[in-house]
Amino acid sequence: MHVIRRLDLGYFVRPASEVGGPEPRVEPVLAYLVRRPEGLLLFDTGIGGGEPETEAHYRPVRRPLPEALAAAGVSASDIDLVVNCHLHFDHCGGNPLLAGTPVLVQAVELATARSGGHTIDALVDFPGADYRLLDGEAEVWPGVRVLPTPGHTAGHQSLLIERPDGPVLLAGQAYDFASEYGQAVLARRAAHEGVAAPLPGYRAWLDRVAAVGPRRVLFAHDHAVWEPSE
């Protein structure tokens, strides 16, 4: 069985100062449950308990991870593997509830998180934390591959999942929105087709993703899904 199920883990309010406009923006926090013959994989775990400054700044509204998992018919004890796209508090917040479960993370991301000022420390090092460090691309299970997608953080990673109807990329916060990702894909296409400058830049890892040709790309803070035009 090959199933990808999106989990609603709440939302937060991004201040207008970060949005670059006159109003704040409410953004979802989405995780993904992946069922494969090898077991259950959870991509991201939701919003962690914040420090007072973080709570006031983002005003998060959490849906508890156990509740979201129960709605999908599973429990925390059923999860065999966790993959965090990165270790900001809104992506690894449920990790302490999964103590003893292996967590795949890029080595540079964990080092950055432990250096301070990156996230909430208690969400990174907690009793039972079991990190499996990666240094670049890696096959997790047959047909499931971690792809480095740096940009939002130096150690950001995405998850590529082979399916009978074509690959699916769980892109986390590689781009904030499907529309931004789509614009970058077009910028890359224009550059490769020799359109004259000036052109917008795009992240180098899009070349690797283009070689795979995902049929769908899903995000951590956007309900929209990117699909190719053909």
Task: Note the topology.
Elements: E1 3-14, H1 16-19, E2 25-36, E3 39-43, H2 52-58, E4 61-62, H3 65-71, E5 81-83, E6 102-106, H4 107-114, E7 130-134, E8 138-141, E9 144-148, E10 157-161, E11 168-170, H5 178-192, H6 206-212, E12 216-218
Parallel strand pairs: 3-5, 5-6, 6-7, 11-12
Antiparallel strand pairs: 1-2, 1-4, 2-3, 8-9, 9-10, 10-11
Describe the structure.
This protein has 230 residues and is α/β, with parallel strands linked by helices. The chain has a single domain (3-218), classed as Ribonuclease Z/Hydroxyacylglutathione hydrolase-like (Metallo-beta-lactamase, Chain A), CATH 3.60.15.10. It is 21% helix and 28% strand. The chain has 6 helices and 12 strands. The model has no long low-confidence stretch (mean pLDDT 96).
